[in-house]
Amino acid sequence: MGFRELNVDLSAEHIALRDAATKFLAEVWRPASIALDKLPDPNDVIAEGSILWDVLRRTWQLGYHKMPLPKELGGLELDILSLSLISEEMGFAAPDLAVSLAVCTTPFAYAQLSPDQEIRDLTKRFCEDTEAKMTGCWAITEPDHGSDWILFDGEQAPEAKIVPQVKAVPDGDYYVINGQKSSWVSNGTFATHAALWVCLDPSKGMAAGGIAVVPLKLPGVSRGKPLNKIGQRALNQGEIFFDNVRIPKTMMVAQDHAIFKFLSNAQLALANGFMGLCFSGTARAALDESIKYARSRVQGGKLISKHQSVKLKLFDMFVSVEAARSLARRVAVYNGQLLKHLQSPAVHYAMASKILSTETAFRVSSQGVQIHGGYGLCKDHYIEKIFRDARAAMIEDGTNEVLALGGADRLLNG
Ligand SMILES: Cc1cc2nc3c(=O)[nH]c(=O)nc-3n(C[C@H](O)[C@H](O)[C@H](O)COP(=O)(O)OP(=O)(O)OC[C@H]3O[C@@H](n4cnc5c(N)ncnc54)[C@H](O)[C@@H]3O)c2cc1C
């Protein structure tokens, strides 16, 4: 295979981490993701005895759930380049499971911002967990506010009169939460904790946002049914309902507008940056599958890899994959450094990376289907799954159009 590692500054540790991840993900994640994808009923993905739980347990045992968390709390505190390499490999092996793992960490990272030691200890307990008993989700999207939440900041910001559906009202030392998050919340039907985006003052609409770390076993929390969708089927998604859920005020880790704005932008930069890395890996998987197929399929009396039209397609795919991979890695490292020093990330770069990688994954996997001919449409060939998974990614974490609008504002306004 002619793929090279173009980062010449990788240490022996980086290479060892990446290679160990590649092996584990190929042996454990890829086959599980394929098996889960084939289940016709999404309830079976999270049923007792599902292979998903075994995969999560093995993933937790190796510590992949705590990769970015601080060492003093039991995390691995991997440097951003290591995180980038592993995220690419996760997207290569199974993007659906990669997204599930990425959102799992979210509430446990925010727990650190609480003034209450008991809530801060959630991070430690999450790091100590080796059974995947603690899992998380990022609950922002609502049935009537998808893109509105993505565009809450910037010129395209929704008007103040647009009021989010999940509201938190103060009541003494507590907040009382009511409302519903949409069926798109990843890990929504099983996560034990949520990083929950709420509206703190309906008179100010989207501008009065808050972020709470909410244990989802509290009275008044209920879940919807797992969503049935065309791609990323191993990724569980579902609604979360809040009916007079009381949380201590210390669980509302962002109440002040400036903090909410900083954290929301940081979250978007991290999420989009991760999507860029992950789906550059998925695009590479599409190319990898296509090269393997082109080297084995004979038509016109020779391997199809010897036909000029197939060669041109493969090299065009390669150009796109390497461009997406390069941008994704540079953006992740750049924003990672800014966030480490508590500086605002360059959100529009993360948006660019997410858009480029997901559109590359979709285009390259479509070319891959073409190279596979009729077999590319069959479930027996992995390229068919990659194509569906990549399609979902162009909507995930903000539609690419809405991200481009938000990115353009940031570009124009510095
Ligand atoms: C696989 C997957 C995983 C996801 N995971 C999560 C998760 O973990 N947590 C979570 O909370 N959410 C999650 N989401 C939700 C995702 O962020 C939303 O689907 C996305 O923000 C779009 O919102 P929507 O689906 O409501 O579409 P809408 O906002 O209704 O958009 C519909 C169409 O209108 C366009 N549009 C909307 N508003 C504007 C505007 N102002 N200007 C121009 N065009 C506009 C959009 O581009 C789109 O084409 C996930 C989605 C997917 C597909």
Strand order of the largest sheet: 1-4-5-8
Query: Number of domains in the coordinates?
Result: 3
Stretches where pLDDT falls below 50 for ≥5 residues?
none
Number of helices: 13
Indicate the proportion of strand residues.
5-15%
What's the end-to-end separation, in Å?
42 Å
The rounded Rg comes to: 21 Å
Which structural category do the helix and sheet elements fall into?
alpha+beta
What overall form do the CA principal axes indicate?
globular
CATH architecture assignment name of the largest domain: Up-down Bundle
The number of strands is 10
Mean pLDDT over the residues? 96
> What ligands can be seen in this structure?
flavin-adenine dinucleotide
Helix content: 40-55%
> Quick one: CATH class of the largest domain?
Mainly Alpha
Main attributes?
414 residues, alpha+beta, Butyryl-Coa Dehydrogenase, subunit A, domain 1, Butyryl-CoA Dehydrogenase, subunit A, domain 2, Butyryl-CoA Dehydrogenase, subunit A, domain 3, 3 domains, four-stranded mixed beta sheet, 13 helices, globular, binds flavin-adenine dinucleotide
How would you describe what is shown here?
- This protein has 414 residues and is α+β, with helices and mostly antiparallel strands.
- It has three domains: 12-128, Butyryl-Coa Dehydrogenase, subunit A, domain 1, CATH 1.10.540; 136-256, Butyryl-CoA Dehydrogenase, subunit A, domain 2 (Beta Barrel); 259-412, Butyryl-CoA Dehydrogenase, subunit A, domain 3.
- It is built from 13 helices and ten strands.
- The strands form three sheets. A four-stranded mixed β-sheet has the order 1-4-5-8.
- β9 and β10 form a beta hairpin.
- The two termini are 42 Å apart.
